[in-house]
């Protein structure tokens, strides 16, 4: 799921969303991210569940403002990767 990508034509407002149980499953070698915050966003509340995948592929923030302005709840994956 990509939040606030300037390349998308139309409404770029990606703030104030409530998403429950965003489910991600990245196979070995998965190069993307489950949630990618590209632009400035505020007030999103997302509960995410994961299959086994590397930590760096779960959530990516392109700027530190969005990292502190959104609430992300990561539920335990099973089995947990180190």
Topology, number of strands: 6
Strand content: 25-35%
Described by strand count, sense and barrel closure, the largest sheet is: 3 strands, parallel
Percent in helix: under 10%
Write down the overall geometry. Answer: globular
Low-confidence stretches: none
Question: In whole angstroms, how far apart are the ends?
Answer: 24 Å
| Overall domain count | 1
Q: Averaging pLDDT over every residue, what do you get?
A: 80
Q: Helix/strand/pairing class, anyone? A: mainly beta
What's the total helix number? 1
Strand order of the largest sheet: 1-3-5
Helices and strands, in order, run as EEEEEHE
How large is the radius of gyration? 13 Å
Describe this structure in words.
- This protein is mainly beta.
- The chain has one domain.
- 7% of the residues lie in helices and 30% in strands.
- It is built from one helix and six strands.
Give the helices and strands, then pairings.
Blueprint: E1 2-3, E2 18-24, E3 35-37, E4 45-50, E5 59-61, H1 64-69, E6 71-74
Parallel strand pairs: 1-3, 2-4, 3-5, 4-6
Concise summary:
It contains one helix and six strands; from the N terminus they run βββββαβ.
Record keyword descriptors for this entry.
82 residues; three-stranded parallel β-sheet; 30% strand
């Amino acid at each position: 799921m990509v939040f606030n990508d300037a390349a998308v034509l139309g409404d770029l407002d990606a703030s104030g969303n409530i998403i429950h149980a965003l489910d991600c499953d990245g196979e070995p070698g998965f190069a993307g991210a489950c949630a990618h915050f590209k632009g400035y966003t505020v007030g999103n509340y997302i509960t995410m569940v994961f299959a086994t995948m590397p930590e760096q592929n779960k959530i990516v923030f392109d700027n530190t403002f969005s990292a502190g302005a959104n609430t992300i709840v990561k539920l335990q994956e099973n089995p947990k990767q180190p």
